[in-house]
Amino acid sequence: QVQLVESGGGLVQAGGSLRLSCAASGSIFSVNAMDWYRQVPGKQRELVARITSTGNTNYADSVKGRFTISRNNAKNTMYLQMNSLEPEDTAVYYCHGVVTVVAGGRTYSYWGQGTQVTVSS
């Protein structure tokens, strides 16, 4: 069993900052690429940022220059530092990870439960 647990969401005023965390736990052999997605009601879930196991990153155009994704491989934890937040960033943020499990060495995709980020104007 593998779990991804997000934390760090909340309510912040426009221009403020939040830091999200995603901790992976369980029968993990290795955590490969990890991503942050976000979703607002009535819209599709969208990719916000991605980081590979070697630290290469990609960002959605809407967050470039404001958000920074990082990870601590020793702790199987990923972070999203969000600065200069805008009301348009309001969404449920989901952690996603591609994990190779100990048993059998197979690779699976896992999602966290989501954390709400609300940016007030």
Keywords summarizing the entry:
121 residues; mainly beta; 7-stranded mixed β-sheet; 11 strands; 0% helix
Give a short summary of the structure.
The protein is mostly beta strands.
Describe the model.
0% of the residues lie in helices and 61% in strands. It has no helices and eleven strands. The chain is elongated, with a radius of gyration of 14 Å. Strand 4 and strand 5 form a beta hairpin. The strands form two sheets. Strands 2, 4, 5, 6, 9, 10 and 11 form a seven-stranded mixed sheet that branches. Strands 1-3-8-7 form a four-stranded antiparallel sheet, with no helix packed on it. The protein has 121 residues and is mainly beta.
> Which structural class is indicated by helix and strand composition?
mainly beta
Strand content: over 45%
Annotation field: number of helices:
0
- What gap, in angstroms, lies between the N and C termini? 41 Å
Q: Uncertain spans, ≥5 residues at pLDDT below 50? A: none
Give the strand tally: 11
Binned, the helix content reads under 10%
What is the H/E order? EEEEEEEEEEE
Using the alpha-carbon principal axes, give the shape. elongated
Q: Rg to the nearest angstrom?
A: 14 Å
Largest sheet: 7 strands, mixed
Provide mean pLDDT, rounded.
97
